Amino acid sequence: MTSLSPSAAYPKAVLFDLLTALLDSWTSWNHAAGSEAAGRAWRAAYLRLTYGCGQYIAYEQLVRTAAVEVGLPESAPLALEADWLKLRPWRGALDTLQALSPHCKLAVVTNCSIHLGTQAAKLFPIQWDAIVTAEEAGMYKPDPLPYRLALGKLGVGAHEAAFVAGSSYDMFGTAAVGLRTYWHNRVGLPLVTGAQPPEVEAPTLDALVPWLSRFGSAQNHAIPPVKA
């Protein structure tokens, strides 16, 4: 009997939301806003704007519009951009990427500009196989186009890949594309109304590699959505 290689059960590629699933942008937004409450309100307004606009509008403009919407001064978005390179990975993010690198192609699909997305992705000392931004795709997630652009760059089908979300808005897009999804719900947000539940929801990345290591097994396909 021929034995399977160690990578046989992994997906061929894993796509990551960058600014929420891998990087702690929550702290940066809160700091720029002056408090956690103001930062969360600002971030929620921004997410609604990106979900609603679809076609790419300059990321920086949407951040400023969201700040105005919640009553923040012009200094808040300026502070966020000034501290961009101070974004910090979540605990376990780099270890997770390094553990997956021998088994899967790794890509970023992020809702920001090419310049800021590339800078943020390079905060991780790894070789990304693809970095796709909303600006490059011409559309914001959860439109299917950014996910499909990444899959095309990687040369894999949706059934051969997984997505790691940072926001449940992503589930609208991954459901449309057919990507099985792990939601790294670090701050305990509720599922957005109408979004399809992810296959796994967890407050950390700890369960990601075990889940992906069984990705191709019939047993893993049979597992209903769970909170890890």
From TrEMBL:
It comes from the Bacteria. It is an enzyme of class 3 (hydrolase). Keywords: Hydrolase. GO terms for molecular function: haloacetate dehalogenase activity. Coiled coil: none annotated. InterPro entries: HAD-like_sf, HAD-SF_hydro_IA, HAD_2, HAD_sf, PGP-like_dom2, S-2-haloacid_dehalogenase. The keyword Hydrolase applies. The keyword Cytoplasm does not apply. Pfam families: HAD_2 (PF13419). Its EC number is 3.8.1.3. NCBIfam families: HAD-SF-IA-v2. This is Haloacetate dehalogenase H-2.
